[in-house]
Amino acid sequence: MISDDFPILAAVAANPAHSYQLLDHLQAMGVKATRSTLYRRVETLTAMGLLEATEVKGPRGHLRRSLVVTAAGRDALAGMVARVLQIEPLESPLFALAVGCAGAVDVEDVAGTLRRRMGTAARRLTEEERALGFTEGVEETWRTAGRERRIAHLQADIAWLQSVMARAS
């Protein structure tokens, strides 16, 4: 099971931000978060020593709390990132967050994990393409459309993983 704190830690590790920016970022990615829950979790993570909040002046002179992940937070996050990269669906916003912050934490063998995930997607793609060739008749029209959609998604997932791996190397 992935901790509810993972999206917060991962987003801050990838890009230190103010709490309101963090909320906007998470919501834009499709992570369900409310302002009150996020602020409570940020307070708890700060008290646990996983996040550090510093007061900085905003452009209009008012104080804002800038969040960064501490060394202890990066250590905790590394295990979470490794787990998310192994189990989350490729289209999940949590998977995207894990990829986005993998460089900011010490995760062993990210490239190997991504290669394994790409291999699994490639095998599924091959199976779907083979099965597509065996469809016949009008009753198969809807199954064919669904299979074509899955093929397109798998092709996009593989291309995305290849681009991530190319940027990382």
Query: What structural class is derived from the secondary structure elements?
Result: mainly alpha
Q: What's the gyration radius in Å?
A: 20 Å
Helices and strands, in N-to-C order? HEHHEEHHHH
| Oligomeric state of shown chains | single chain
List keywords for this structure.
mainly alpha; Arc Repressor Mutant, subunit A; 2 domains; 3-stranded antiparallel β-sheet; 3 strands; 9% strand
Task: Describe the model.
- The protein has two domains: 6-104, Arc Repressor Mutant, subunit A (Orthogonal Bundle), CATH 1.10.10.10; 110-168.
- β2 (51-57) and β3 form a beta hairpin.
- 23% of the residues are buried.
- The protein has a three-stranded antiparallel β-sheet.
- It is built from seven helices and three strands, in the order αβααββαααα.
- By secondary structure, it is mainly α.
- Helices cover 65% and strands 9% of the residues.
Briefly summarize what is shown.
With 169 residues, the protein is mainly alpha-helical. Helix content is 65%, strand content 9%.
Secondary-structure map with pairings?
Blueprint: H1 6-14, E1 17-18, H2 19-29, H3 35-47, E2 51-57, E3 63-69, H4 71-87, H5 93-101, H6 110-132, H7 141-168
Antiparallel strand pairs: 1-3, 2-3
